[in-house]
Write a structure and sequence with these properties.
Largest sheet: 5 strands, parallel
Distance between the termini: 37 Å
Strand content: 15-25%
Order of helices and strands: EHEHEEEEHEHE
Helix content: 10-25%
Number of helices: 4
Length: about 180
């Protein structure tokens, strides 16, 4: 069993989205805890500050791919969570901004549906996903549910914990 973590902090954005100075500080604090031998004792902690969409998606895919059943996989995201007009949830990147109509380019952000795909396709049965962003509870919506509906299955799978800083319709605040 090995422990792998990916910590993504996005504090810088394109025009129309305000910076979140605490995102990088949050990632660094999490890194220190996970790398500490008496606390997290993770084997590998990758920090991704202010990534573009391509590098962020590749890092997320790499985190969940080629894992063994007993590996512990942790994904942490701090930044802007966004909902498109069709109510689909996205994680922002440094390329993400808003135009004068308040819309963002979906091609600049990671769709929750893509993240869900990487999560559910992983062999790891020990997963922790922590999203510190607006609308983060929307990640659970649309995750595959197998068989009867119960709370454990609704969270997406055996050995998976998803922690969100807000519901699907709530904002998260930096303070």
């Amino acid at each position: 069993m090995a422990k792998f973590a990916l910590l993504i902090g996005v504090s810088e954005y394109s025009e129309g989205l305000r910076p979140i100075s605490s995102a990088i500080l949050d990632v660094e604090a999490m890194r220190r805890v996970l790398e500490h031998p008496d606390m997290g004792a993770f084997d590998q902690v990758k920090v991704l500050p202010n990534p573009d969409k391509g590098s962020m998606e590749k890092a997320v895919e790499d985190l969940f791919a080629n894992r063994q059943r007993d590996d512990l996989v942790l994904l942490y995201f701090s930044g802007h969570g966004l909902k498109a007009q069709n109510a689909r949830f996205f994680l922002s990147t440094r390329e993400t901004g808003r135009d004068q109509n308040g819309d963002f380019r979906r091609a600049t952000a990671l769709a929750a549906s893509k993240l869900q795909e990487y999560i559910t396709d992983s062999r790891s049965q020990r997963q922790i996903i922590i999203l510190d962003c607006c609308f983060s509870g929307a990640l659970v919506q649309g995750m595959p549910i197998k068989g009867e509906l119960n709370i454990q299955e609704e969270l997406g799978g055996k050995g998976r914990a998803i922690l969100t800083s807000s519901s699907p319709i709530e904002y998260s605040f930096e303070s």
